[in-house]
Write a structure and sequence with these properties.
single chain, alpha/beta, 6-stranded parallel beta sheet
Length: 468
């Protein structure tokens, strides 16, 4: 991994961030504005100034973490430590609880615990949340949200603002009592198994913060994609920062059901402690226009934290949208194009993205049969920054970039009952926005049969449509 990734000349705004010397800083920047690069350059400058400094850099996912680790090895292997939140918290929690390993719940465990909790509460109430099964997903999300806010009793829950929670399920004060009863029973059932949710990590560490050893703390803590961490996670990371604390965030790319204000975390971002990056240095003007036309349907644009993009001067081909009459036609068209790209531009990175791994896995077998070289970008697997074809999902691609991007299987989702939930649609829209903005130079989108409702939201003047 070359240092060229962070060695290019910075803008005046980016330089301000690198040179900022205060103890707390919020960096608000759009997709492709260089947030990760600026954090890494800031870390390098701090290490050059103080060779004994310890910096903890927390990234959104394992894919981005692996990229940052490669850079960290070049600029300060003894100084810069890169983690995902749960990667760091797992070790810290084992030490605090004095356990050799932690038993963590699976998704199936959580569903089973919730089902048992609902059955218990159903004996004492006929509330719709316990009698109607359709609320089970909402209840699971609400329990995660409760933990993420650090709520420990019914009174706190009844008084907390749910602004930003975003769910289409209406919750009044009387409903909160039932939800909290279900939460209590969920915790009791889970406790009997001696397992923990990942959502319990930050809460448990905050409650035991006096036991946290210095080896789990840092002089400086830097956070990339801070909008997708929970309030309690950010509060804990602020606690382990002995001196400086920097958060880079973009509410426009918020893909998890969290809600908090920076004040809730206990940081001061007033005055010169907030820096805004509105320019994209990744994508062409045409790609940003397309992404922004989709984002205009998102309620996030009304949020005071939202940062509107400034269109880049850098131009390229208009994105292409391909309508195929079958999935097989779509996959065949992708194969033909990939072969052409690999022959004409072997030095380019090509990202193949889809919402689900099942789509990516299907294409993997197609590529295997066609002899197309490729690699998965998944957790610690693969390198997104070497030339060639990279297969990954919307989630795993966050924070990454590719010269060319293909997004496949953008099919009609009207039959999915989850899409009746406004919150679900918002998250899906942002995931598509994130995926579109992974493309540096050229973008193709594919669907068969009926297009996704989200694809219909994109202004047609920002792409060329083709029928195959």
């Amino acid at each position: 991994m070359s240092l060229a990734a962070i060695d290019h000349k910075l803008t005046a705004k980016q330089e301000e961030i690198v040179n900022f010397d205060g103890d707390e800083l919020l960096v608000k920047g759009i997709a492709g504005s260089g947030k990760t690069t600026v954090l890494l350059k800031k870390a390098r400058k701090m290490i050059e100034k103080n060779p004994s400094i310890r910096i903890g850099l927390f990234t959104y996912n394992k894919t981005l973490s692996e990229y940052a680790k490669k850079i960290a090895e070049k600029i300060g292997p003894q100084n810069l430590f890169v983690y995902t939140f749960h990667g760091w918290a797992y070790g810290a929690l084992r030490d605090v609880l004095r356990q050799s390993r932690l038993m963590v719940t699976t998704t199936r465990d959580q569903k089973d615990f919730l089902k048992k909790a609902v059955e218990i509460v159903k004996k004492e109430s006929k509330h719709r949340f316990v009698t109607e099964e359709k609320f089970s997903e909402f209840l699971g999300d609400e329990i995660s949200w409760l933990k993420g806010k650090g709520i420990k009793n019914l009174l706190d829950y009844q008084n907390v603002s749910r602004t930003g929670r975003g769910s289409s399920v209406r919750v009044i004060k009387a409903d909160r009592k039932i939800i909290y009863r279900i939460y209590e029973e969920y915790e009791r059932v889970k406790r009997n198994t001696r397992k923990m949710d990942y959502d319990d990590f930050a809460l448990t560490l905050l409650e035991n913060k006096a036991k946290l050893k210095d080896s789990y703390k840092f002089d400086q803590v830097m956070i990339d994609e801070g909008q997708d961490l929970q309030q309690v996670q950010l509060m804990l990371l602020r606690f382990i920062a002995k001196k400086g604390f920097v958060i880079a965030a973009d509410k426009g790319q918020k893909i998890y059901k969290t809600s908090f204000s920076w004040k809730d975390i206990g940081i001061n971002i007033l005055g010169g402690r907030t820096k805004i990056l509105q320019n994209s240095f990744r994508s062409t003007k045409q790609i940003i226009q397309m992404a922004h036309s989709l984002q205009m349907h998102d309620s996030i644009i009304k949020d005071e934290e939202y940062v509107a993009p400034i269109l880049p001067d850098y131009t390229g081909p208009i994105p292409d949208v391909y309508e195929c009459d079958s999935r097989e036609k779509q996959d065949a068209a992708i194969v033909t194009t990939i072969k052409k790209w690999l022959e004409e531009n072997p030095d380019k990175t090509i990202g193949i993205l889809s919402r689900e791994w099942k789509s990516i896995n299907r294409l993997y077998y197609v590529f295997q049969a066609q002899g197309i070289p490729h690699e998965f970008i998944k957790k610690e697997q693969g390198n997104a920054h070497t030339p060639g074809v990279k297969l990954t999902t919307f989630h795993s691609a966050k924070g990454l970039e590719f010269d060319y991007v293909m997004i496949l299987d953008l099919v009609d989702d009207a039959g999915d009952k989850e899409l009746q939930d406004e919150e679900f649609v918002e998250v899906e829209r942002r995931l598509l926005y994130v995926s579109i903005t992974r493309a540096k130079t050229y973008l193709q989108l594919y669907y068969y049969n009926q297009p996704s409702s989200l694809l219909k939201e994109i202004d047609s003047k920002y792409y060329k449509k083709h029928t195959l």
